[in-house]
Structure formats: C-alpha cells, structure tokens
Amino acid sequence: MAAEPKTLAELSRALTKRSLSAEAALEHCLARIADRNQSLNAFITVLADEARAQARQADREIAAGHHRGPLHGVPISLKDIIDLRGVPTTAASRVREGFIAPQDAAVVARLREAGAVFVGKANLHEFAFGTTNEDSAFGPVRHPLDAARSPGGSSGGSAASVLAGMAYASIGTDTGGSVRIPAAACGLVGLKPTLGEVPADGVVPLSATMDHVGPLCRSVEDAATVYRVMSGSAGAARPAAARELRGLRCGVPRAYFLDLLDHDVAAQFDELCQRLTRAGAILDEVAIGHTAQIAPVYLHIVLAEAAAYHAPTLERQPGDYTPNVRIRLEMGRYILAEDYVRAMRGREVLTTEVNAALDGRDVLLLPSLAVPATRLGAATVQVGGVEEPVRNIMLRLTQLFNITGHPAISMPCGHTGEGLPVGVQLVGKSGRTPELLHVAATVESIC
Amino acid sequence: MTVTAWLEHALQDANRRGLTSLGPLLEALARSVLALRAADWNLDPAGHTTRPSTGHGR
Description:
Order of helices and strands of chain B: HH
Oligomer: heterodimer
Distance between the termini of chain A: 30 Å
Helix content of chain A: 25-40%
Structural class of chain A: alpha/beta
Radius of gyration of chain A: 20 Å
Radius of gyration of chain B: 16 Å
Shape of chain A: globular
Order of helices and strands of chain A: HHEHEHEHEHEEHEHEHHHEEEHHEEH
Largest sheet of chain B: none
Number of strands of chain A: 13
C-alpha cells in the first residue's frame, strides 16, 4: 500500500496519477479529526459531509480528465474568520452567533474554483486579536506536540489542523504575525504575502491597514502552490532555474531583533547563519533605524482600527466578547486621532527603512518567534533571564512587516532541547512574493 | 492633549464605566504614546524638528 502523502505536493501528484483518490485522502484527514479534535480543539466546524461530496466530485472530474490544478481534491481548512458560503463564520466569538456566510470570501472562491476540498473552519484567537489562541468562545487550541502549550495564534487552529494531519494546508490571516507565529511554534511554513496581493473581501477585519491572508503548509513548495491560487497568479510564469545559495545576499537586522531571544532559538538561528555562510551565502548586518517605535506604531494602528470596527458591538453586546479581547478592544477606543496619524506617519518611515535594508540584498533573515511555543495560561515568559509579557514577545519579530506590508515567510529551522520547533523568517521586497518563495525554497534545503 | 491629561481622563472614564482592569493597560498605552510622540518624524510647526534618518543598512 502506498505511503500516505506527507505534503500537499505529494498528495497532488498521487491524485493526478490516481494512485490515491481525493475521497481516500479526505478520509485520512477526517479520521485524524475524529481521533484528536476533541483534545486539540483545532476545529470549530467540521464539514465532513460537504467535504466528502467535494472529494467525490473531484475524483469524478479527475477521472474524466478535467484536472483543475495542484489543489484539485486537496483537503484544506479555513481559519474561521474567512467566509465559506452557507457555513457560520464565528470569528471564535459569541458576537457573531447566528451569522451564516451568504457567499464565499474572494480567496475561498479562488480555492473552490481550483478544486480544493474544505474540511472545516479552524479555531482562532477571538477576532484574530491575540497570539496564543487561548481566548476563544470555543475554548483554547492545544499544541499537537504538547497539550500544555499553545500552538501560537491567532491562526492556532489552522496550524494545529495542518500539524496534526487534519488538513494538508490551512488559510489563515496575519495582522501582526498570526500566520507566521503559529507556523514557527508548530514547525510549519507560514506565508504572509505582500499587502494587498490576496484579497481580503469576505474576511472579518482586524486592522485593514495591516490585515494579510496567507497559507500555513508543510513545505515552501506547498505554500507557493497555495499562494499562486490565492493571489490569482496560478497561470503566471515561475522562475526557471533553482536559486543557488552561493551568492545569496541576506541582511540580518541584529539590533533589537536578536536582542531578546530564547537561548535555543538564538542557537538554532546562529547555526542556520553558519550553514548559509558555509554554503556561500553572503550575510551582513543591517539596521532598522526606528526599532523603538515599531511596537507603538503597530499598537496604535491595530487598536484604533479594531476599535472602530468593533464599536457597535462593544456598545450593544460587550458581554459576548471574551473578557481579555473585550478589554483590549475597549483600550483602542481611547486612542487619540492625533496619535493614530503619528503612527501612520511612522509606518511610512519604517517602510522606507525596510526598503533601504533590502536594497542590494535578496532577503532579510531573522528568527520568526523569539521563544518556543508558550504554555497555556502564561501571561509572561522568561527570555534571557527577564520576564516578558507573552503578547509583546510573540509579536516582536513579525509585526514590523505587517506595518510595512513586505512579504515574509516563516520556515522551520530546528528544535529546542525540549523538542519544540524553531522558525526562521525571510522577508522579501514588496510586490515580489514569488522571488521570496524562490529564495525560501533554496534556504529550506539546508534548514 | 498631553499624555498625562489623556491618561487621567482615560482612567476616570474607564473607572466610571466599571472597567477597572483597563487601568494597567492604559498606563502601558501611555508609555507607548510617549514613545510615539518622541519619534523624530513628528514635525514641529516652529520648524525645530530635524528630518528623520532613514536608517540605511551598512
């Protein structure tokens, strides 16, 4: 009997050759959901019957020679903040009780056209406003490798579903790091494309200035495949030759970004830098001038925009929010307009600085997450002998690239001494996500 | 509005609304406001502020 495909690419090849049916692949995923979802809580809504109908349709179409592409028949989960026609979009909140999506989100329509099979709606941190997936009206998601830990967030259910074999990919959202953070915590690949490349229509907003939609997958190849469909660039020409490591130019922003790291995360990152250098890559240090303002700029934009969106329901039904998310949204209602304007000016400055750091280089290279997956219930985590608030440390390395909109990808690059995944982040030039993916595939070969 | 005045008003309003748990968060936000207002990209109508550095990589 053929081994079960480990990646979306392997599954796609098996489906094309018809050595495995979409229905059989789906049943593997549904069996894992039946086995582990009660303990992991990765899904809010499982769409077993609907997915079976989609899988059977995919098998009929493939047998008839009508192959839609590499996602045809592939089981995928959707973060439950993304509309899927006829299914609730809960945003993990009682606030949205009773809401049924009247139509697919734009990105879902593209995935549906490509023949993807929607396994279910993944759990998340309520309204995507958190980094641990602990605050959800449906309970926290647990890390598939350690049930006492968070899988990261806010796309925690998405990450858990892919890591636990319940789906071959998941579509998440990333406003401060919410695809890359759980990807790093779970040893997956998580892509945040360039701002605006993937439509956010039909996705519940957190902060329109910084919301991105992106995939969580098991490999860079898988992420590239899903990205091409999501961005509507599936027909676009791809780079012809494999990118070599020799001569690859990587800027490493050491100041601020490497100042506060878990010891094992720092060691794994250093080891990767050494492997890259031995392979002929050129690493040099770059500086981002206004690092002291990264967190204040992010905070003022996300709080103000989230508060503006949530104002009606904060007044009408405040008790329907989880307490932690409600109180932080309420905080946003005290942001002054003049400070929001200052933050938006800071966004322009930081964008210029990241562009300058990338000038003459292929990518920026830094860790994705400063600490390994945190323990559920922890408000602080020790980093370098200092207790740091979990939320601050989780966002520290990712939020800048939400502010600026540059494409960024997290890939696994080792483990801590306790066996927890460590992620490395590559950041590319704005509007050049395919090139970033090309570089990432090359770096992945030595990770 | 100065940060001090803003924080005072915000804390009073949060307490009036029974949202006492907002207190520490507003104090943290005040520190963030100070950092934002201290940034050198904020222009001074009197013309005293220098243009911000773009932080070119080495």
